[in-house]
Amino acid sequence: MVNRVLLRGFLAGVLVLLGGLVVSALPRSSHPMRSSVLVALRDAEAGRMLGLAVVLLGLGLLAGQWLALCRHVAQVPAEDRDDALALVRHAAVVWSAPLLLAPPLFSRDGWSYAAQGMLAHLGLSPYDHGPGVLSGPILQAVDPRWRETPAPYGPVSLFFGDVVAGTTGNPWMLVVAHRSLALVGLALLAWALPRLARHTGANPALASALVLLSPLMLAHGVGGLHNDLLMVGLMAVALVVGLERSWMAGCLLGGLAAAVKLPGGLVCLAIVLASLPAAAGLAERVRRLGAGAVLAVAALLGTGLVTGLGSGWVHGLTVPGTVVTPLSPVPMLGGALDWTAGRLLDLAPATFLDLARLLGMVATVVVLGAVALRWRSGDAAEAVRELALVTGVTVVLGPVVHLWYLLWVVPFVALLRLPRLGAAALMAVSVLAGLVAPLDSSLHGAYLAIVLGAMLVAALTPVLLLTRRARRRLERIAAARWLPVEPSGDVATRGQRGSQLVVHGEHPLDRG
After folding, report:
1. Name one Pfam family in it (predicted).
2. For residue 59, how far is the Cα from the chain centroid?
């Protein structure tokens, strides 16, 4: 059964790769574009629809095999957990392999990464110049929307892009190099998740399977090669180091995560709270939070200094917020108010949009402050919960939301004590976020393909999630997320302070 699931997952990746060559943006000068068959498929709407169908078939097959593997891991006896974890990690390698040489899938961001790295290699600051100052193949697949905008990313990925641009100018090879950086993030998660699971009482193998093999991860993290995967991998490692080694070292690693993308620094809040005594007072919290912030900022600014890229990324932080996506509740509300007011009042454009974004940022800061000053301290399990909360709030109330932003949240939610319905919802979101990945700008205006693709997703969803058999499968996986065994010494000690989830062999889901 296991070998069959591994093989089908690999074939699913092959289908996503083949279909992705049709629906994804490619440089005109790239080697695949020399194929007359591929060019004909890409030029015809019927061809792009066929490519979309192949991608969706691959993602649907991947979702089915993911659920099957999660069910298998959930049924493994406690004494075989290490073997189950090894299986999950092996599956992550096998399922990711077909996508290693793929172009950036379902987003053009990877092409921007390549161009920004080339800017740095040529001595032009990506924080002062957009990719539009370049010419040639490196620019051909960059989204026109971002050609004149500075990079909003920290210096880590830009420095990496600078280094690899010194070895090749081929944009395809550059994005493959950036995918290897994303896979480093996946490897960091594979190392950190089982260790965090021991602190929360979650099943390490199943928590790893829920994160590393999900359609969300394979489509957006590996296929889309977004910097977010490296960021969240560093966040998870920082939290492990902060809990098990030194809170100061954890905060330094949190600063390194922020040097990939700024939200990575949120992990420092959880690390500091876990390092405090259980009854820490306000003054002690403020002192420790201040010290943690100093360490994280020092790591962030130090990375810019060492790489020579500086801190110009601060000026680029507003770049992602120049667009409004359908997944962004706060900007969508502001846009709706602007549309209504425009028919009733004489207001400047985007009045309510800008106000809504400002209020969203204020609300985010208020939540972060409340967590920092009032949330339970001295508890490793609560630290994971705190991190899931603050990343979730930052995404929901942020100025822009993309599907891959869920990568910030899902790895930590997968470790939490959730009711069966909540765990099933987590898996449903991971499936749907993966299935709808192709239905974006990568289809080059093929609106009929988008509509038909949405209909196909709607048809696949009941089969994968809503049938009676699927619901039973999800419930069995959800019910097995917590270990019905006595926790190890460190976790048990923390449990004495009030949040231990697994005690004396009792299954947490059986408590009222």
Report:
1. MptA_B_family
2. 17
Both tokens of 78, joined, read 């406690």
The first and second tokens of residue 314, run together, are: 């601060």
Look at the alpha carbons of 305, 262, 213, 479 in this order and tell me if their dihedral is positive or negative: positive
> Using H for helix, E for strand and C for coil, what is the string for 87-112?
HHHHHHHHHHHHHCCCCCCCCCHHHH
Gap between the Cα atoms of 136 and 483, Å rounded: 55
Q: Report CA Rg, the chain.
A: 23
Residue 226, phi then psi, degrees to nearest 5: -75, 150
Per the DSSP assignment, residues forming a β-bridge with 482 are: 202
Taking the C-alpha atoms of residue 449 and residue 459, their distance in angstroms, rounded to an integer, is: 15
Locate 379 and state its tokens: 């508890």
Two structure tokens written together for 389: 């909360």
Tokens 């790489």 correspond to: 307
Strand partners, 202: 482
Spatial contact of 182 and 225, defined as CB atoms under 8 Å apart:
yes
Give the residue with greater pLDDT, 481 vs 264: 264
Q: Which residues of 131-161 are buried (b: 16+ CB within 10 A; e: fewer)?
A: beebeebbbbbbbeebeebbbbbbbbbbbbb
At 294-317, the pLDDT tens digits run: 999 999 999 999 998 888 877 777
**Angle, alpha carbons 464-470-471 (nearest 5°):** 125
- In angstroms, the CA 328 to CA 332 distance is 6
Distances in Å between the alpha carbon of 328 and those of 104, 276, 320, 400? Answer: 23, 35, 12, 5
Q: Which of 171, 177, 165 is nearest to 122 (CA)?
A: 165
Tokens encoding 97 = 């392999």
Give the other-Cβ count within 10 Å of 46's Cβ: 11
Tokens at 246, concatenated: 């030194």
Helices in 351-466 by DSSP H: which ranges?
A: 351-374, 380-396, 410-413, 420-435, 447-461
Give the pLDDT confidence score for residue 146 in this predicted structure.
85
Output the average pLDDT for the chain: 84
Residues 160-171: tens digit of each pLDDT: 999 999 999 899
Phi/psi for 246 (5° steps) reads -145, 130
**CA 218 – CA 371 distance, rounded (Å):** 32
Q: Where are the alpha helices (DSSP H) in 213-328?
A: 215-216, 227-244, 247-258, 267-275, 282-307
Where helices occur in 122-154 by DSSP H, the ranges are: 137-140
